[in-house]
Design a protein that fits this description.
Blueprint lengths: L1 E6 L1 H12 L17 E7 L2 E10 L8 E9 L8 H15 L4 E7 L3 H5 L4 E2 L4 E3 L2 E9 L1
Length: 140
């Protein structure tokens, strides 16, 4: 059975590292404002199999944006609906917290996944190292 619960930033680091940037040092996957974020883990039979971090941003005249970062699922647990459940949880949490927009910098190889949630690209393609990204956003 899958459960999604809040976790500490430190609990996200091993999955962030092994899935997103295994060739970089562990510090590379830490975010400067991790301490002010909300971190969630998807647990399957009490084993952490996916993580995501949510950050509320400063309120603007257009509302209160939120950003999720460092979304990672173990490769052997991908394409099983776990990431979908985790992202749905974060969307609901962002709404509950009053966010009016949710965005992320998405790897282009995951663009179709984000489109299924109603997210759309709002930037040109850019690169982090050799990996192509675009900013995706949705209204809440």
């Amino acid at each position: 059975m899958l459960t999604v619960t809040p976790i500490t930033p430190e609990q996200t680091y091993p999955l962030r590292h092994s899935v997103l940037w295994p060739d970089k040092p562990l510090d590379y996957v830490k975010v400067d404002n991790d301490a002010s974020g909300y971190h969630y883990g998807a647990f399957l039979d009490n084993e952490l199999v996916a993580v995501i971090s949510l950050f509320l941003e400063n309120e603007t005249s257009d509302g209160h944006p939120a950003r999720f970062r460092k979304f990672a699922a173990r490769p052997d647990r991908q394409r099983q609906g776990i990431g979908t459940q985790l992202l749905n949880h974060v969307i609901a949490e962002a709404r509950r917290m009053g966010a009016t927009e949710l965005w992320c910098d998405a790897r282009l190889d995951a663009a179709d996944f984000y489109r299924r949630f109603g997210m759309a690209p709002v930037s040109d393609v850019f690169y982090k190292g050799p990996i192509a990204y675009a900013t995706f956003s949705m209204s809440l």
